[in-house]
Amino acid sequence: MSFLEKMTAINEENRCIKDNHRRELAEKFELRRKLYKALVRDPTLPNEVRENAFYKLSKLPRNSSFTRVRNRCIFTGRPRGVYQFFRMSRIVFRTLASNGMLNGVKKASW
Fold first, then answer.
1. How far apart are CA 18 and CA 16, in angstroms?
2. pLDDT digits (tens, 9 = 90+) for 8-46
3. CATH number listed for the domain at residues 3-71
4. Which terms are listed as keywords in the entry (predicted)?
């Protein structure tokens, strides 16, 4: 089994599935959440409208907030040390880069 196959086998863990579900929910409720937040923050609106928007905002699912989404490595599911551009952890990045499996990435020398 190659290095990539081992790493992708680990990706099927429950926490990655949960994170993907959170991403889907955040995308689904994004416009509604932004609308309610804008209504709540607008001081020119009557208090009744703002309270109603705040109530509706509180009834949205918690996992629909973007703050609950975590950047994870696409190979290992590791939550820390993830390079956003490559969407992989520093450990996987170093291994793949040193094996020459990432196009355009080479070790610096000067």
1. 5
2. 655 556 788 888 999 999 999 999 999 999 999 999 999
3. 1.10.287.1480
4. Mitochondrion, Ribonucleoprotein, Ribosomal protein
